[in-house]
Amino acid sequence: MDATDLLPLLGGPGNIRSVAACMTRLRVELHDRTSVRDGELRALTGVLGLVEDADALQVVLGPGIVARVTAELERLLDPLATRGAALKAAQQARNATPFKTFLRRIGQIFIPLVPALIGCGLVAGLAGVLADLHLLPTLVPALSAVAGGFMALLAVFVGHGTAREFGGTPVLGGAVAAVVVHPGVTHVHAFGLTLAPGQGGVLGAMGAALLAVRVEKTCRRLLPSALDVLLTPALTVLLPGLVTLYGLMYAAGEVSAAIGRFTHVLLADGGAAAGFVLGGLFLPLVMLGLHQALIPVHTTLIAEQGSTVLLPLLAMAGAGQVGAALALYVRLARNGRVRSTIRSALPAGLVGIGEPLIYGVSLPLGRPFVTACVGGAFGGGFVGLLGQLGSTVGATAIGPSGWALFPLLKGSHGPVEAVAVYGTGLLVGYATGFAATYVFGLSREALAELNTPRAAQPRPERPKAVPPEQGVPPSAGL
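The structure corresponding to this sequence follows.
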């Protein structure tokens, strides 16, 4: 399948305003949704599903393929690239709810940072392993510096992204957020307290950049053009900078500390129950796009504590999904189409990219989505129980999950135990998802209808769902 196969089914080049890709899905903004030939699009080889967004149609293609197809579409649509900016803004204003728009913007702040978080997390993990094994002692400090440099300046990147996303000048947002990590804040005293570099973390950086955007927009509206070029940058840095130093860093620091205390209490007191609930509800959160609210929480925990204990719990949802897919593969031995979809989507599911299995297999069939959640709940309950007993497992970076999370694990008793706890949790999720789906995943009527030798059997109609936002990586723990 290539872009030339998709283009006529999407209503032709004149019907497309813009295209973009996330990890697994092609996101297409359209002029006329009714011009899309849904049935033919779903039946096209390589298309794993269609998902309605507030302002776009998302075509689930899977990792790798989506990048190639998006690049081909962009080349085909290049003459149209300058059209429709006003229409796009009007459509988004009509269709996007404030809450969903806010979540999408939060995601867009952090998504560009994920590759660096993954890379630095892997380097930090390597440094930790070498230090534990007392190997290459002269190299360990260098690796730690390479891994820690980005994290030390994370607030600057968050401020830059926040200003860009909310309509300000990105470099001014980064400049204001840089105040949060500057060593000179130790000389600032207010309310009888002394600040520490990094106090407030990414939450403080976001708040500082949002203030900067507000001040910048006000200045550009009120100041004459002759003064704008000089005064607007100065006031945009000065006023939010002072507010950040004399109030925002303290408040954001308290919130960040509260998040850390809450997660500690969550695992220490309600580990098994908390893990069961988080692992069981995460797939529906992904389906609704609400998981993006957890991105700054993960990032805050990593900045404050060195790892996020929530991600290994949430990753169990992906294990339940894999177990459910394997059960369907066994039960639907005569359904070539479903089995082919599972074979193509399963490798991505094993490394934490769950959308192909969600939108191509479990969600369209209904019950298997529920039984996949059951598998995730039991896997999360197991990891939560071990955390409650003292064997806490965290991830030093967000982004991957499934098997890809192993190199990023950090445990309270060392990496070996962390790998053992997390790996066993995955096995529990696989086994429970498989068993629940095998026994309860298909009604007798559905099994008789689906388990036929017809290779060209049409897929069941997919219920419309609100998916995770554009570009959201599997940081959510699929």
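The first helix runs from residue 3 to 9.
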